[in-house]
Amino acid sequence: MESLELLKLNLAIEPDLRSFVCFLMVSVERLKGNVFLASLASLELIGRLRLAGACSGQPFPVSIQLQNQHLRVHWNENEFSFLRLDSAEQSIIDPLREYLRKSTESTTPEILMQRNEAMARHLHDTRVRTERELAELEVKLLIRQSELQISVRQAETDALTGLLNRRAFDEKLDQAFRHTMRQKNSPLSLMMLDLDFFKTINDQHGHQYGDSYLIKMAQTLRSVIREDVDCAFRFGGDEFAMMIHADHVTACHKARQVIQQMDGRVSVGIATIDQRTHDDMTLESFIHQADTALYDAKHRGRGRAVVDGCCKIDALLCGSKCAAKETRA
Question: With contact defined as beta carbons under 8 Å apart, do 297 and 304 qualify?
Answer without folding.
Answer: yes
